[in-house]
């Protein structure tokens, strides 16, 4: 594909993201107990984990901004609840960062990978549909960032997923005592994933991210994605194999000079559609993500 064609595509991205890729919105929060101290809260825009430690509550992601009050009420109603002292942003998207401002104003420590903080300090406009995201005020930006990995005094461990599965700032949070691993959107619990190639995500990164999760988890680990039900190591292994197959097929097409529409017509994920649903928009986005990743300055 000529560089000029890639450049035109990356600036205009004519194919729109379907409604199923839109940011989920809900305000009814449901609570699931995973452990005596860990609860999964669903309905805020993503799966939120709450750890009720002795020094306050730790949240993994904060839902959408319009659901922040409902989420705060749900957290306050948990057994042995306390003020939220720590909030992790698994990446920069609105479903993950909607509680940043109120919790930042309350003095909470907001932890994120450095790339996530950088995205939140600038205005972002998606080229494929014109959707805009305003930069966060200083008080709502992560105030504790890292590049590789870290740990809290409570024993919670966290680390960077540098493969760019969903964005280039994905992180995981691991609770070793409970063997629970939160991975944000580096793995999906339902449906085809959304690859935000404008901020670093790509199909090869999905494969790499899942392989990294495999190396962090074990067969008993409960893996918490940002969307959908809990996953097991077997689920992650199956996903890694599936996306690896799709990536190889798309890479071969890219090397032959094919384009997104030709990739969609070739149906490289056909055998997975009975379980996953129609793959056309995912394949288009996955192919486009290769252009964005391999020619970032085109």
Main traits of this protein?
seven-stranded mixed β-sheet, five-stranded mixed β-sheet, 10 helices, 298 residues, disordered N terminus, Metallo-beta-lactamase, Chain A, alpha/beta, 33% helix, single chain, globular
CATH architecture: 4-Layer Sandwich
What is the C-level CATH assignment?
Alpha Beta
Gyration radius from CA atoms, angstroms: 19 Å
Backbone shape: globular
Low-confidence stretches: 1-26
- The secondary-structure element order is HEEEEHEHHEHEEEEEEEHEHHHH
Helical segment count: 10
CATH superfamily: Ribonuclease Z/Hydroxyacylglutathione hydrolase-like
Q: Provide the domain count.
A: 1
Helix content: 25-40%
- Within the largest sheet, what's the order of strands? 1-2-3-4-5-6-9
Task: Please characterize this protein's 3D structure.
By secondary structure, this protein is of the alpha/beta class. It has one domain: Ribonuclease Z/Hydroxyacylglutathione hydrolase-like (Metallo-beta-lactamase, Chain A), CATH 3.60.15. It has ten helices and 14 strands. The strands form three sheets. The chain has a seven-stranded mixed sheet. It has a five-stranded mixed sheet with strand order 10-11-12-13-14, with no helix packed on it. Strand 13, helix 6 and strand 14 form a beta-alpha-beta unit. Helix 7 crosses helix 10 and helix 8 packs across helix 10. The chain is globular and about 55 Å long. The N terminus is likely disordered.
């Amino acid at each position: 594909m000529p560089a000029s064609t890639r450049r035109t595509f990356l600036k205009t991205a004519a194919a729109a993201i379907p409604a199923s890729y839109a940011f989920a919105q809900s305000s009814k929060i449901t609570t699931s107990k995973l452990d005596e101290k860990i609860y999964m809260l669903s309905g805020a825009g993503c799966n939120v984990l709450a750890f009720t430690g002795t020094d306050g509550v730790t949240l993994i992601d904060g839902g959408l901004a319009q659901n922040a009050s409902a989420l705060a009420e749900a957290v306050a109603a948990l057994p042995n609840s306390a003020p939220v002292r720590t909030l992790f942003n698994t990446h920069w998207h609105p479903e993950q960062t909607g509680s940043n401002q109120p919790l930042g104003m309350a003095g909470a420590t907001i932890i994120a990978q450095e790339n996530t903080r950088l995205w939140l300090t600038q205005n972002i406009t998606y080229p494929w549909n014109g959707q805009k995201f305003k930069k966060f005020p200083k008080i709502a930006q992560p105030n504790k960032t890292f590049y590789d990995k870290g740990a809290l005094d409570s024993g919670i461990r966290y680390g960077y997923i540098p493969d760019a599965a969903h964005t280039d700032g994905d992180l995981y949070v691991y609770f070793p005592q409970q063997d629970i691993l939160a991975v944000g959107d580096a793995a999906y619990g339902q449906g085809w994933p959304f690859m935000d190639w404008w901020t670093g995500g790509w199909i090869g990164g999905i494969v790499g991210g899942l392989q990294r999760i495999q190396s962090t988890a074990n067969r008993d680990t409960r893996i918490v994605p940002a969307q959908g039900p809990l996953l097991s190591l077997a689920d992650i292994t199956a996903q890694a194999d599936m996306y690896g197959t799709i990536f190889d097929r798309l890479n071969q097409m890219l090397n032959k000079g094919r384009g997104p529409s030709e990739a969609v017509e070739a149906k490289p994920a056909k055998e997975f559609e009975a379980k996953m649903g129609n793959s056309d928009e995912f394949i288009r986005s996955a192919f486009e993500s290769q252009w964005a990743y391999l020619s970032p300055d085109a």
